[in-house]
Amino acid sequence: MREHLEDWAWAQTIVRFTGRRPPDQVVQSVRAIAVVDDGVVVCSLSDGTPFLPGGTREEGESVDDCLSRELTEEAGFLMKGRPHWFAAHSGVSYHRIPYKPYAPFPLKAWLWGAVKGELVGPPTNPAGAEQVAAVQVLRPEDAVAVLESEGRGYAQALRYWMSLGAPVDL
Question: What is d(CA 107, CA 35) in angstroms, rounded to the nearest whole number?
Answer without folding.
Answer: 30
